[in-house]
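Notes, Module 5: Reading structure tokens.

Key idea: the token line is not a picture. It is a compressed description, and you learn to read it the same way you learned to read a sequence, by spotting repeated patterns. We will look at two proteins. The first is printed below with its tokens.
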Amino acid sequence: MPAMTARPYAAGFRAALGGGVTGGRDFDSDALKITLHGTGYTPNYDTDAFQSALTSELTTAGGYTAGGLTLSGVTFSAVAANSWTVVAATSTAYVAGQIVRPSAGNGFIYVAAVGGTSGGSAPTWPTTLYTTVADGSVTWCCIGRGAVALDFADPSWATFTAGPFRYAVVADTTPGSAATNPLLCAFDFGSGQTGGGGTFSIAVDPAGALVLPY
């Protein structure tokens, strides 16, 4: 499975950052958990704010424990474009959503608007926000001068046969109840998945699980 980025819950993030009953959260020290949910759950990224909006979580079985896995190595930090750790490479496969900076930093970061394989030489990177450039079969879009990134170690489950599930949802569980634990983001696997008996891991994109450009 390729490295993945997650999609944010707008209402949940607003609540977590001080716009809801939870007050302002500290992601670096709070307990963030990830839960797996079947196709019976359809995320509403605009209005789902707290864990109480979630449905169809997997039950405790097949290597999964209901209530979720506590994430480790959590960081939430701002990174300027020229300090971005993921550098664009030639002749490399990229999936839509991956974020890079040019090898010669120019003060901007770029998202793969269309996935594909980059060309044999670097493109002329645009420096006007929201303009695009073709690079082999990849289309890059200039999205900002840096980003705030939520990152954590790749979550994994051993001897995993649970499923089917489609979504992995990250929530801040420090407030303590489903009605007050804000939803942060979700990984969408595109279809129902079932473990094959080995270790199942979510490969988090090196740029971060959730990237908010500025």
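Here is the second protein, with the sequence above and the tokens below, as before.
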Amino acid sequence: QAGMRWEYVDASAHMARQFNSNLQGTNLKTSCNVSDLHAFLGTAQKGKYDVVLLSLVLTSLGHNPEWAKVAACLKSGGRLIVADIDATYTAQNPYYIIEVQGRTHALAPRAVSLTQVYNEAKQAGLKLEHTQPVVEGTVNYAYIAEFSAP
């Protein structure tokens, strides 16, 4: 869409390079900030964003972001979309085994329940609009939650 701008934040310089590489040849204009989400929220312009998307972020952070700072970044009526691994699934599968360049690694994501996200976002003044489970077989693997800013 004309005039659309992404602002990608990641603490990993490697992931930021990969993100930029994936955008090559697309019409998307991007600004890629290599910083921690918590640090970015401390400097982000208030009321600037139509959408803030946190996709598989919470389970990799040491603690949840300050939701009031996330809410402050959104324009009135803006949306926060959170997509992450279901806490029950994480409890049943505490490690994710991946192979990188012939070496096996075990990742241990932090369990973050949708209830916790809902309660913290609500305290920050965000309104829950919609939730959707992501099902793998018969197990809720992840969730998607959409919140709106006042």
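Summary for the second protein:
- The two ends are 25 Å apart (CA to CA).
- The chain has a mean pLDDT of 89.
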